[in-house]
Amino acid sequence: MTRLFDFTFSLLGLVIGFPIFVLLFIIGLFDTGSPLFQQERVGRNKKPFTLVKFRTMQKDTASVASHLASSSSITKFGHFLRRTKLDELPQLWNVVKGEMSLVGPRPCLFNQEELIDEREKRGVLDARPGITGLAQVNEIDMSTPELLAETDAKMLSSLTVGAYFKYIFMTITGKGSGDRIK
User: Fold this and answer.
1) What is the per-residue DSSP string for the chain?
2) Beta strand 36-42 with 48-54: parallel, antiparallel or unpaired?
3) What tens digit of pLDDT does each residue of 88-133 get?
4) Which of 146, 137, 51, 63 shows the shortest CA–CA distance to 91?
5) Per-residue pLDDT at 69 exceeds 60
6) What CA–CA distance (Å, rounded) separates 161 from 1?
7) In terms of pLDDT, which residue wins out, 145 or 70?
8) CB pairs under 8 A, 24+ apart, for 73-81?
9) pTM strictly above 0.70
10) Residue 127 in contact with residue 98, Cβ under 8 Å?
11) How confident is the model at residue 58, as a pLDDT?
């Protein structure tokens, strides 16, 4: 059931949001010269996939988890994108393709071994990763792997259609600040 919601709402978001995508892309060209950011992430059943976001950091920033990145590498436009969560919009394409869900555990990097181990113990990697979820709206990020994996498992075990829409609504209205940056 959630896959149908994911596909429908993501496709709708891509079509309706197309003018916004174009505008953000153009501004991103002036900001960093490379408005899209692509990174290999851990997908469902540990299958790798390429996550797509609007770039918020300088092009030469090391590819590490957000909580390990320096805040000085975030551009002014990047701060705006992060604050408004507009940097996440291109992930709607990942959702349409079936690599992600709108609601699920945030996909981590393959070098985040502690988080991967914690998620494996709890069966979290059996689910599609998501754009938002319980951990995100409660400001739990990848800097606390055990807590994040526990929260992801709790969300997945109790995910109803109502909770699915609740997490999306909470994210759109600004609940949760995203991953911390040092």
Assistant:
1) -HHHHHHHHHHHHHHHTHHHHHHHHHHHHHHHS--EEEEEEE-GGG-EEEEEEE--B-TT-----GGGS-GGGB-HHHHHHHHHTGGGTTHHHHHHTTS-EEESPPP--TT-HHHHHHHHHHTGGGSPPEEE-HHHHTT--TTSHHHHHHHHHHHHHT--HHHHHHHHHHHHTT-S--S---
2) antiparallel
3) 999 999 999 999 999 999 999 999 999 999 999 999 999 999 999 9
4) 51
5) no
6) 8
7) 145
8) 74/181, 75/31, 75/32, 76/31, 77/27, 77/28, 77/31, 77/32, 78/31, 78/32, 81/24, 81/54, 81/56
9) yes
10) no
11) 86
Burial class (CB in 10 A: 0-12, 13-18, 19+), 53: buried
What confidence category does residue 176 fall into, taking pLDDT thresholds of 50, 70 and 90?
A: low
By the 8 A CB rule, do 155 and 128 touch?
no
The position carrying tokens 């059996």 is: 126
Paired residues of 57 in beta bridges: 74
